[in-house]
Every structure is written in structure tokens, then in C-alpha cells.
Specification:
Number of helices: 15
Largest sheet: none
Helix content: 55-70%
CATH architecture of the largest domain: Alpha Horseshoe
Strand content: under 5%
CATH class of the largest domain: Mainly Alpha
Distance between the termini: 15 Å
Order of helices and strands: HHHHHHHHHHHHHHH
């Protein structure tokens, strides 16, 4: 565990030291380390996570384009090109950029190219899932497919099925579906997203990160409230909130190894257990985090949800409160 009072660091690589070294190389414009790392990555959960983190770092550069030009038949380069195009389209969407539509279509073409270049790979389908949220009116037929179960809304279920076929219970694919429902749900109370999160968690096997989806919806509900209503703090200690936190602890945390756990998931479970006053259990999550943290969900507990300095203070207060337990 981080030493007493030590301020945590945000590192997208987290406990993945090989990924951290590759990111350092990437930031200097070199792609050889990225190719080597991806060639050595065999587990789909790790491949999905590493390509996402690398694309986030590479989106503001031409390093992946250079790699693809040097090795036009490289499957990892083709997948990374799709990843980067999707990241750029999503950034443009968030910023209201006038070229969002062009970037969206470019990313869609790159993702479909990747599906053909890498048939067994779930990531190109995850990319298409990520782009689905840009279709605000659900004009594309693939974004309004009938759901696989009752009480679920139409959505990009076919894309999710393709990702699941290649990597069952792929964490990012299901989070992309959740993000789609946040933007496209018909209920302002996040009812569709909540229903989906519980459905996915109920169908997930032990050790799956999908057991955490209800925690993410709970945090999203709090974020949308602005955290201004003190009465909302009660929902962190409500019976269903405590049950969701305990489920995440026993069905996910206790069934996984350090390398498998994302920092964002660890932070959400630590936050949920702390909010539910389960301090002894929360300490285990803080120990697993070690010197790292992520601004979310802690930032949503502050008056200014974009203030990282305030967010880290909330994190430190929570960690200190749990340690004596």
C-alpha cells in the first residue's frame, strides 16, 4: 500500500510496467516498442486494454500512421489505426468539433477494415460499439437492434454480440454499451442503463468486471445530480448500494489477480465500499491500488467536478478514514 499520507499518481498504464515503457517510447514518436508489446500480448482482456491506452496516447500524433505506412499489412497496426481514428472521432464529438462527422465516418471505415484484417479480434467490434454513441438519432439500423432479453432497450446489440463472440464478457464492449444508453436512453433517470447494468452483471461469471457495472450507473446518477443535494449521499449507504459494493468485492475483486484489474475499476469499488461505510473491505482496495488512483469517481464528490486537486483530497480523506479500520 502507498505509505501513509502519500499522494497518489495517475498513470494510465497502472501496474502494467511493460505498457508504461511502451508509452514512453510512443511519446517520443517511436513505434517499434508498441509493435513488440502488441505482438507479445496474447490475452484478449490485455490486448483490449493495451490498445485502448496506446490509442489514447497516440491520437494526437502520427506515430500509428507512420507504422502503418511502414508495414501496411500489419494486423496490429491496422487495429491500432482503427483505435486512433475512433479516439479522434470521440474527442471531436465531446468538443463539438465541426469535422466530427468526417472523423466519425473515417473511424467507421477503419474499424470495418480492421474487422476484415483481424477476424478473431474483439477490438474492431469494440471500436464500432464506441462509435455507436455518435448516432444520436439511432438512424443506423445496427444501432437499434432488438435486445436479447425483456425490459432491455434496442441498441447496438449485434455489435456487442460480435465482440462477445470473440471475447465473452469483454469489459470495454459492455462499458461502450452503457455509454450508448447514457446518451440514447429514453429515461432521464437512467432507468435503461441501470436495467442493462444489472442484466449484464447477473449473466456474468465470477471474476468478470461486469459485476461492477451497477456501481458505474450509481456514480453516473450522482454525477448528473451535480452532487449538490446532500440527501443523495444516502444512496451510498442504502441497502442496494451496499449490496452492489459487496458483490463487486466478492464476485470480482476476490476472483481476480492484480494484473487483470483496471485502475478505474479498483477506484470505483474502493469508492463504493467507502461510501457504504465498509471501511475494512475498502482498505483492501486501497492496498491493491498501491501508489495509483484515477480522478473518477472521486471528482464527482467535489463542488467542481473538473477540479483534480479537490478530487485527490477526497481520495486521501477516504483512504485515511479506512486505514484505522
Amino acid at each position: 500500500m502507498a505509505r501513509e499520507g502519500a499522494r497518489p499518481a495517475y498513470d494510465p498504464a497502472g501496474h502494467d510496467t511493460a505498457l508504461r515503457a511502451t508509452l514512453q517510447e510512443l511519446r517520443t514518436g517511436r513505434w517499434m516498442s508498441m509493435r513488440r508489446l502488441l505482438t507479445e500480448t496474447t490475452a484478449w482482456w490485455q490486448w483490449t486494454r493495451r490498445t485502448q491506452v496506446l490509442a489514447t496516447a497516440a491520437a494526437g500524433t502520427d506515430v500509428v500512421r507512420t507504422w502503418l505506412e511502414e508495414e501496411p499489412h500489419s494486423v496490429p497496426a491496422t487495429v491500432m489505426h482503427a483505435r486512433v481514428c475512433v479516439e479522434r472521432a470521440l474527442r471531436a464529438h465531446r468538443e463539438g468539433h465541426p469535422h466530427t462527422l468526417d472523423l466519425w465516418h473515417e473511424a467507421w471505415r477503419a474499424s470495418h477494415t480492421a474487422t476484415r484484417a483481424a477476424p478473431p479480434d474483439p477490438v474492431p467490434w469494440v471500436c464500432l460499439m464506441a462509435l455507436a454513441r455518435l448516432d444520436r438519432e439511432r438512424q443506423w439500423a445496427e444501432h437499434r437492434v432488438a435486445p436479447p432479453g425483456p425490459m432491455l432497450p434496442p441498441g447496438p446489440w449485434g455489435l456487442l454480440a460480435e465482440a462477445d463472440k470473440r471475447d465473452p464478457y469483454n469489459r470495454e464492449a459492455h462499458h461502450r454499451m452503457l455509454q450508448f444508453l447514457y446518451e440514447h436512453g429514453t429515461s432521464g433517470r437512467l432507468a435503461e442503463a441501470a436495467g442493462y447494468a444489472h442484466w449484464a452483471a447477473d449473466t456474468a461469471p465470477p471474476g468478470s468486471a461486469l459485476h461492477l457495472l451497477p456501481l458505474y450507473v450509481r456514480v453516473e446518477r450522482y454525477r448528473r445530480s451535480g452532487g449538490r443535494d446532500a440527501a443523495l449521499d444516502l444512496h451510498w449507504v442504502a441497502e442496494d448500494a451496499t449490496r452492489e459494493a459487496q458483490r463487486a468485492l466478492y464476485a470480482w475483486f476476490e476472483q481476480t489477480f492484480t494484473a487483470e484489474r483496471s485502475l478505474l475499476d479498483l477506484n470505483h469499488v474502493a469508492h463504493a465500499l467507502w461510501g457504504a461505510l465498509q471501511f475494512t473491505d475498502a482498505t483492501r482496495l486501497f492496498e491493491a491500488l498501491g501508489p495509483y488512483w484515477t480522478p473518477q469517481p472521486w471528482a464527482y464528490r467535489t463542488p467542481d467536478q473538473g477540479d483534480t486537486a479537490q478530487a485527490v483530497e477526497i481520495f486521501l480523506q477516504a483512504r485515511a478514514r479506512c486505514r484505522p479500520a
